[in-house]
Amino acid sequence: MTADNTSGLSEFEKQRLANIAERDALLKKLSLEAQSAGIFTSPRTVGGNGPKPKKRAPPKRIKEEESPLPRRQSSRLRGLTADSEVAKRKAEDDYEAAREAERAKKVRRTDSYSANDMFIAGQKLNGDGLIGVDVVNKGVAEPYVRTFGDADVKKTTDKDLKALREEMNGLSLWGQWDPQRIKITPERVYAMAFHPSESKPLIFAGDKMGHLGVFDASQEKPETGDDEDDDDPDPVLTTLKPHTRTITAMMVHPSKPTRLYTASYDSSIRELDLEKTTSVEKYGPQSTNIDEALSGLDMAPEDPNTLYWTTLNGTFGRYDMRSKLSEKTVTHWQLSEKKIGGFTLCPSQSHYFATASLDRTLKLWDLRKLSTNDPVPVAEHESRLSVSHAAFNAAGQIATTSYDDTIKLYDVGAKGFSSWKPGHTLSDQEFRPDTVVRHNCQTGRWVTILRPQWQMNPQSHIQRFCVGNMNRFVDVYSSSGDQLAQLGGDGITAVPAVAVFHRSKNWVAGGTASGKVCLWM
Questions:
Q1: pLDDT given for residue 147 in this prediction
Q2: Whole-angstrom Cα distance, residue 415 to residue 430?
Q3: How far apart are CA 106 and CA 316, in angstroms?
Q4: Of 353, 351, 477, whose CA–CA distance to 409 is shortest?
Q5: Within-domain flag for 240
Q6: pTM beyond 0.90
Q7: Among residues 155, 150, 151, which one has the least CA distance to residue 168?
């Protein structure tokens, strides 16, 4: 606007127009500077001659396909009279059909599976099955900052403890492939287990969608030529799908090395034959309409035929696989009004077992005197927040993780539990943690809950267990709460939340929310 045009305006209006002009000039200047710096570019017009951006190939990923609900359409497009009874019934029928299809996807399958029925991806299985003959016969800290290392080992004065710390800190990340390339399951890892064989590290992992991954870490990376075009092969992995929902627990009984037992939110326990690669259901409710999501699974070392499990409904169950499955052969105890997150039998006194619950309690039970009508625990301890898992070792020590950011250690072996008579109980004062270790257990929504896991047959008198660390490590502790190692390495970009020890070898594996596995040997 020229001076002549503004002559009739008030001083306020003149100042307003001047401010607008100054603002427009500043915005134009900033836009030009941003374009020259490459912060953003002007949108390409349709039919322009500029270079088209390269499209990246989507990553290969196996994921459960979700059935989309029927798309809504107007009555006119469907040839129906608007607001008619026909239209309403059609919409209701479509909705119910979609709901039923989604529910059917999650209903457990009770039939047996062959290898082809379960196979999803990876190496096609040959006559040797999943395992070879040689296996059968033979505290809160800064993010990502290490809190335990070589300096802590050097300060140790106890000779035995120092030797064990040096041994555990000597474990190194398996280096044949980068951890980012060892994708053992398509979805988040919920449960893991080592095969008990000492001849080679064979790892099983179960994920959120019911997939089972198998990884043989004895394989070696094939040599490639100097040519850049030579393919860099991925490690050999096998992915099966024995369950329709999350696999929450798994184990291989040492007296049955060719059988892998898995428990799932689909309410079933299945047995996978590792030689024939077939899967059969060993336990499940009488009706597939019964939702009894299983949270834990265990077997006594001296009894390879009896299954024990816990549920999200707070029940504990037992079933002898040698008997025909029926209501009479399965025993249930209602041990909690809330979810039991984890449990274990004591390996040396298998009539004792410990449960961890959302009701904030750790409870010790005796199967010799456990009423189905009114079960009474041997002992009980309440934490400030929910207890995630209770892990028993052969020495009678229990390790728990809790959302109050602690690892608690209870030593009932020192209290002479092996000589207790049926009906023996402990007072609240007698059953208290002997050691409390500060440990970040705030996993949030996307990371699997942290659970401690003991080495069942350690090769020294010092008991030890491993547990995931939110700083992208796996921590190893002794039964007295002394930290033995903090395992990490290059290439670990997610929290190895699901950490497991081999029964007897110093091999530790960790599974992440992206389905990757880390292995230290």
A1: 74
A2: 9
A3: 23
A4: 477
A5: no
A6: no
A7: 150
The pLDDT, as a whole number, for residue 7 is 64
Would you state the pLDDT for residue 38?
A: 60
Give the structural domain span for 140.
Answer: 115-180+246-495
Q: Which residues pair with 183 in a beta bridge?
A: 516
156: domain CATH number is 2.130.10.10
Q: Annotate 285-334 with DSSP letters as a single string.
A: -SSTT----EEEEE--TT-TTEEEEEETTSEEEEEETTSPPSTTTEEEEE
Where the chain has pLDDT below 50, the residues are: 42-48, 50, 53, 55-56, 58-59, 61-65, 133-141
Q: Number of folded domains in the chain?
A: 1
- Interatomic CA distance for residues 163 and 159, integer angstroms: 6
Residue 315 located in a structural domain:
yes
**What's the rounded Cα separation, in Å, for the pair 18 and 1?**
10
| Dist CA 346 CA 478 (whole Å) | 18
Query: Domain for residue 424, yes or no?
Result: yes
CA 310 to chain centre: 17
* Cα 64 → chain centroid: 17
- Show the tokens assigned to 476: 């190893």
354 within domain boundaries:
yes
**Cα–Cα distance between 358 and 379 in angstroms, integer?**
17
CB pairs under 8 A, 24+ apart, for 129-134?
A: 129/273, 129/274, 129/275, 129/276, 129/277, 130/214, 130/238, 130/272, 130/274, 130/275, 130/277, 131/195, 131/197, 131/202, 131/257, 131/258, 131/274, 131/275, 134/197, 134/199, 134/200
Distances (CA, A) of 32 to 40, 51, 386, 512: 10, 21, 57, 45
Cα–Cα nearest to 455, from 411, 424, 500: 500
Tell me which H or E stretch contains 247.
strand 247-251
> Rounded distance, CA 309 to CA 263, Å?
8
Calculate ∠ Cα 290-291-294, nearest 5°.
Answer: 125
